[in-house]
Specification:
By secondary structure, this protein is an alpha+beta fold. Helices cover 53% and strands 8% of the residues. It has a 5-stranded mixed β-sheet with strand order 1-11-3-6-2, sandwiched between helices. A two-stranded antiparallel sheet has the order 4-5.
Length: 598
């Protein structure tokens, strides 16, 4: 059997198939992202008989029903959604959703004299030479004869025969040829993805989450559109709560549903720590509910695939949609989500910039939901999720082949009588003394300020409620929350003046501390031994020049919590490398203590 078939059809036939639900457009209920001018250009290409690219459909497999009969799968449009939606808007006069989830018309006008298209505007509406909305020309009730008479009366310089020919050419747009590539249902998701990437001239790549969302949205029997809207609206609301009123106003049917009431709390919630996209929602819900990591498996299950017999069965489709719906509802549940955010904050993650691994966040939430569903008490759940989250950051566990690792880890957590048993086994194998003394120390040798290892150090400082360097009232957490900046223990200008011109050298993360701007300005470009001597002297004379520390014990405690060695009092530029080594060890020990206390 061939992987695909290539056929020619017409714009009119394709729009008819969509009306009859033979071909499904999964994007039809999502915001239309094309600008109106692009719709205009598409119509112009068709009018001039230019090719507009292939449309790609993917056949849903025929599924065997319980009574032995066959349910025939419809075709899903996986490439060409925006083009077909544009044609439906311009030719059929259908409304599309904008970014505010408002239904609106895209009206394309046509100028018979100049044979050009334009997006309708007020000037066009006042000019009788324009056909202000071409959808009327394509309407079944359109009378070409009456239109020509009226138009030529209002524009006597137009020749009726010429107008007739132009109109006929315009109408023939619906008979324009379209190439349709029909992918066989037997293709696995990886092959479909590869075909899509190779064919798509714009170089756009569909993720497996996109394919999964397509499968979800076209299944009306098991309330797929409701699941999809729950996922879509939640992921939009978490980033832009202001669209709540637009959704409520423009999708009244969904606004009256239970899933909408499950997500409406998001409009009054503000967090920048974890803002999941629709693919994140799908991945977490699928991982914890199905105990699998590969989204391609979700696509297969939603199609009814039996992995053992390789048949497609309706009961697998039904069960998969039921479980996915439950997983999504538990993901968006207010109590679950807010408890997870509190766990993140209790780990020292108070800002999204402190964790760059979305995969680590996603698995941590999947683990939280799994343990909660299994009935573990809150204290054990909090402890396990915090530990595992930091382990995944320390070891960059989900940086490569994340789906395989998701699959591996979720199965082992599900099979463990106690989640700490699995965590302990990973600790013993991957967080040995050798890891901390060698691998982790090497990881700290970097100049990348957004390094996960520097972020772990900051998380440790937040967890320990540390004060900023040379401060006794302002804490590191407050500086991060107020978008404060890191500064150099060995001032950058001082190092440059002493021959250190390599940015990767003087910008080592082991040279960074969070401190108040006033303190940094007071330090200027002085050697650390010099400005620390000033700090010591002000303790005795009570004349503050740098910071506000007025006690020797407080100074030593402040240096310790900021991992600044006391040897810095006697250091000059010649000791910079020695300082970096000493401070890396102190940072490593602080992070290790932080992890062990979680």
């Amino acid at each position: 059997m061939s992987n695909y078939n290539v056929n020619n059809s017409t714009v009119n036939a394709l729009l008819g198939w969509i009306e009859e639900d033979i071909v499904a457009i999964p994007e039809i209920q999502r915001p239309f992202v094309w600008k109106s001018s692009k719709v205009r250009d598409l119509l112009d290409s068709l009018y001039k008989d230019y090719p507009i690219g292939y449309i790609i459909t993917w056949q849903n497999p025929d599924a065997r029903l319980k009574d032995g009969s066959i349910s025939h799968g419809k075709r899903i449009l996986i490439d060409g959604q925006q083009r077909v939606t544009a044609l439906m808007a311009a030719i059929s006069g259908k409304e599309v959703l904008n970014k505010k989830f408002q239904n609106r018309r895209i009206k394309i006008a046509f100028h018979p004299f100049e044979e050009k298209f334009e997006v309708q505007n007020n000037a066009i509406l006042k000019d009788k030479k324009w056909i202000p909305d071409i959808s009327k020309v394509f309407n079944n009730t359109f009378s070409q004869f009456n239109f020509i008479n009226t138009y030529c009366q209002e524009n006597p310089e137009m020749n009726p025969d010429k107008l007739n020919a132009i109109l006929q050419r315009l109408i023939n747009i619906k008979h324009s040829t379209l190439g349709i590539i029909e992918l066989n249902h037997t293709l696995d998701i990886e092959t479909v993805t590869e075909i899509f990437i190779r064919i798509n001239s714009a170089g756009v790549s569909l993720s497996q989450a996109d394919f999964a969302m397509s499968k979800i949205s076209v299944n009306d029997v098991y309330k797929g559109p409701i699941i999809r809207k729950t996922v879509d609206y939640f992921s939009h609301l978490i980033k832009s709560p202001a669209i709540y009123d637009d959704i409520k106003k423009n999708d009244s049917e969904f606004a009256g549903s239970d899933p909408f009431h499950k997500i409406k709390w998001v409009k009054d919630y503000n967090t920048n720590i974890y803002e999941p996209s629709y693919s994140d929602v799908l991945r977490v819900a699928f991982t914890f509910k199905f105990l699998r990591g590969r989204l391609s498996n979700l696509v297969s299950l939603l199609s009814g695939r039996d992995f053992e017999t390789r048949e497609y069965k309706e009961d697998i489709i039904e069960n998969s949609f039921r479980d996915l719906s439950d997983g999504v509802i538990k993901f968006v549940d207010e109590t679950n989500f807010k408890r997870f955010i509190m766990i993140l904050k209790s780990t020292g993650i108070i800002d999204s910039k402190l964790i760059r691994s979305q995969n680590s966040l996603n698995f941590a939430y999947a683990l939280f939901l799994l343990l909660r569903e299994r009935g573990f008490n809150s204290s054990d759940i909090n402890h396990s999720v915090r530990k595992w989250l930091v382990i995944s950051i320390l070891t960059e566990r989900y940086s490569s082949s994340p789906e395989s690792m998701f699959d591996f880890d979720i199965k082992r957590f599900a099979n463990a009588d106690n989640p700490n048993d699995y965590i302990t086994s990973i600790e013993n194998g991957e967080l040995s003394d050798a890891y901390w003394e060698n691998t982790f120390m090497d990881n700290l040798e970097t100049s990348v300020a957004s390094s996960p290892y520097f972020n772990l150090y900051l998380m440790a400082q937040i967890y320990d409620n540390d004060y900023a360097f040379l401060s006794k009232s302002i804490r590191v957490q407050q500086l991060i929350e107020e978008r404060g900046d890191v500064h150099h223990v060995f001032p950058k200008k001082y190092l440059q003046n002493n021959g250190y011109n390599n940015r990767r050298h003087y910008n080592q993360i082991a040279n960074y501390v969070y401190t108040e701007q006033a303190v940094n300005l007071s330090i200027k470009d002085q050697a650390p031994g010099k400005y620390m001597d000033i700090v010591r002297k002000q303790i005795s004379n009570n004349q503050f020049v740098i910071g506000e520390i007025n006690d020797e014990t407080l100074l030593k405690e402040n240096m310790k919590m900021n991992c600044v060695p006391e040897s810095v009092f006697a250091m000059t530029a010649n000791n910079f490398d020695e300082f970096l080594v000493e401070r890396r060890r102190m940072m490593m020990e602080k992070i290790r203590r932080f992890y062990e206390k979680l």
